[in-house]
Specification:
The chain is of the alpha+beta class. Helix content is 38%, strand content 18%. It has 22 helices and 25 strands. Strand 17 and strand 18 form a beta hairpin. Helix 15 packs across helix 16. The longest helix has 20 residues. The model has no long low-confidence stretch (mean pLDDT 88).
Length: 628
């Protein structure tokens, strides 16, 4: 019996003895009363739950407890498990078909385990249900496939089934199940096999440990660590349980790590080989060691690392879980302190996950967050070791970290058709550059909102979309921001205000949001020619850029007036994420001040106020004054 069930039973015992109630059903725990007969509604209910657990993430059914959660007051009733009524459980293996309209039943015996125990004055049955591999989903009960949603069993809709069938077609040539040339069962570690079995048994107690390799063969074949016909190890088997897997897998069992700092003496690099779990652990350790130089303090004075540890761990794990194991290439992790972490792996996204529109006027490049693993059997093993959750948390975590200002916007770079890099960027989503955008467009935003508040959630969603759009223009791919992965109300409010809009080329079911073009259009050369004529073309590029910024601020800011200091800040942060060198920053600001003075002398701008409070405006009468 695993620890989770012990805790549940302790709580049930307390509730029954004290006539109290605490909700105990979860996404993975279901309570059922005894089964009076094969055709009764209780039997159908348990079949539906077994079906849902098989099709989702597995779960545990406790039989013999009635949950009166629809009564007042709510209560539990101990019904007990009666062996003479267990025929419905014995019949379960002939209840689920592999197709909706098929008479071919799926053998699920390897995914079920029963345990009958004494509980208070009765006996109860604990039924452990393991998740089916992705390529064996979905199974049907009475022509319906169910999935577990929160505490209930829900019918899987036709469009989801259709998508999964297409996904299964892609998996037919799975790289993780390729045979490993030259390897034999003797190259498998019995200790690693038993470690895996121990992890399984922590959840469901399904397997005995193995005394030797010969006794482990049926288990290894079932888990696809060995091919059934030849008993030859697969890539999966060597990655999880192999002795020195790099001997046979080469770069497929390799991670190379690099630390590139601005001080050459501090650079570091290493190469790790071996078991996939060791690769994950050692790669994470290297990154955590390398980012210690980036520790800062939060508002409470506590040390905060450059990046959330769980985010780095998930990203490294996902790279190894989803990489293409047919390619003899390694995963690469590069740490650049105060800049980013780059994780490169062989392979690419499935075609249906990449949505893009490459027209120059309104381009976008987005990745749809998805939980379907590229290597489903490996993913299932990693989930047992708590290294992969299968809920789309990898991409959702990247988006959430940005929206919570733990990192800047992450993005992907397609290096080649079979190489992909993830960049996790240091910084904050709402940084100095974004705050300056909000300041420049303060009046414009206020007018758009029509008296409604510009909430923090709206600012975060807007900043994410704004930065995504700029990254997309540079050829990088960002993760789609959707109502599913964050900020549904904020997106709706921004759309209502006209601060963002749905791209007309958005695919069905996946809205691509773009920010109002006024925020993206930062080049006003045509307007400058209209105001200043040919004299504008005689200015140097720095002065032209400065004039365009002054015009932009005059047009969209509530006051409409800009200081030289403010202009220097804006122009600096358009090129830099932060001030790394104070002397360079100060020199840049002095140069901007000089440009202001020159533009004022030439009558391109006019001033109001004195000293540090001087504000500047575009001289809209420039051409008129020259005529007279």
């Amino acid at each position: 019996m695993n620890q989770d069930i012990r805790i549940i039973l302790e709580k049930l015992e307390y509730c029954l003895k004290n006539d109290t109630y605490e909700g105990l059903e979860t996404q993975s725990i279901e309570l059922k009363p005894s089964l009076p007969n094969v055709k009764g509604k209780e039997a159908k209910s348990i079949y539906q739950s077994i079906n849902a657990f098989l099709n989702t993430k597995g779960g545990i059914i406790i039989i013999g407890i009635k949950d009166w959660n629809n009564k007042t007051p709510k209560r539990y009733e101990l019904k007990g498990y009666i062996e003479e009524y267990e025929n419905p459980l014995k019949a379960v293996e002939q209840k689920f078909t592999i197709f909706r309209n098929s008479a071919e039943y799926k053998n699920i015996s390897n995914y079920l385990q029963y345990e009958i125990i004494d509980f208070l004055s009765q006996r109860i049955c604990i039924l452990y249900v393991n998740e089916l591999p992705e390529d064996e989903k979905f199974v049907y009960f009475e022509q319906v496939a169910y999935k577990r949603v929160l505490t209930g069993d829900t019918e899987i809709q036709a469009d989801e089934i259709e998508k999964h069938e297409a996904y299964k077609e892609e998996l037919k040539g799975r790289r993780e199940l390729l045979p490993v040339e030259g390897a034999t069962i003797e190259d498998i570690s019995i200790d690693k096999i038993n470690d895996y079995i121990y992890q399984i048994n922590r959840r469901n107690q399904l397997h005995n440990t193995k005394p030797n390799l010969e006794s482990a063969i049926p288990f290894l074949i079932q888990k696809m660590f060995l091919l059934k016909a030849t008993e030859q190890p697969t890539v999966l088997g060597m990655l999880v349980c192999g002795n020195n897997p790099e001997t046979f897998l080469g770069l497929r069992a390799t991670v190379r790590v690099f630390l590139h700092s601005k001080i050459k003496a501090a650079d570091d690099k290493d190469q790790y080989t071996g078991n996939v779990l060791d690769l994950m652990r050692r790669s994470l350790s290297f990154v955590l060691k390398s980012i210690q130089v980036g520790v800062t303090r939060d508002e409470a004075g506590k040390d905060v690392a450059e990046y959330p540890e769980n985010l780095i761990s998930e990203s490294i794990n996902n790279a190894l879980a989803h990489r293409d194991y047919k390619m003899d290439d390694y995963v690469r992790v590069v740490v650049r302190p105060n800049e980013h972490i780059e994780i490169t792996n062989p392979g690419s996204f499935k075609t249906q996950l990449v949505i893009q529109e490459l027209r120059q006027d309104l381009p976008f490049r987005r990745i749809i967050p998805a939980s379907k693993p590229t290597n489903p059997n490996l993913a299932q093993v990693l989930s047992i070791f708590a290294k992969w959750e299968g809920l789309g948390n990898g991409m959702a975590g990247l988006v959430s970290a940005a929206l919570e200002s733990k990192t800047d916007v992450p993005y992907y770079k397609f290096n080649t058709s079979d190489s992909l890099s993830l960049y996790i960027n240091k910084g904050k989503l709402i940084d100095d550059s974004i705050n300056l955008i909000f300041e420049i467009y303060e009046g414009y935003i206020r007018k758009k909102l029509k008296g409604n508040p510009f909430s923090n959630a709206m600012k975060e969603a807007f900043a994410y979309l704004y930065k995504s759009q700029l990254l997309n223009q540079k050829g990088y791919y960002t993760i789609l921001l959707t109502s599913d992965n964050n900020h549904e109300d904020a997106i709706e409010n921004l759309c209502s205000a006209g601060l963002i809009y749905r791209h007309p080329k958005s695919p069905v079911y996946h809205d691509v949001f773009m920010v109002d073009n006024a925020f993206i259009q930062t080049h006003f050369g045509e307007k400058m020619l209209e105001v200043f004529g040919i004299e504008y073309e005689r200015l140097n590029p720095e002065q032209q850029s400065l004039l365009q910024l002054i015009y932009q601020y005059n047009t969209f800011n509530e006051t409409g007036k800009i200081t030289a200091n403010k202009a220097g800040n804006i122009l600096w942060f358009r090129k830099h994420k932060f001030v790394a060198n104070q002397k360079e920053y100060d020199a840049f600001k002095r140069k901007i001040r000089t440009q202001f003075n020159q533009l004022e002398i030439k009558k391109f701008i006019t001033r109001e106020g004195k000293s540090v409070h001087t504000h500047y405006m575009i001289n809209s009468d420039f051409l008129k004054n020259r005529l007279f």
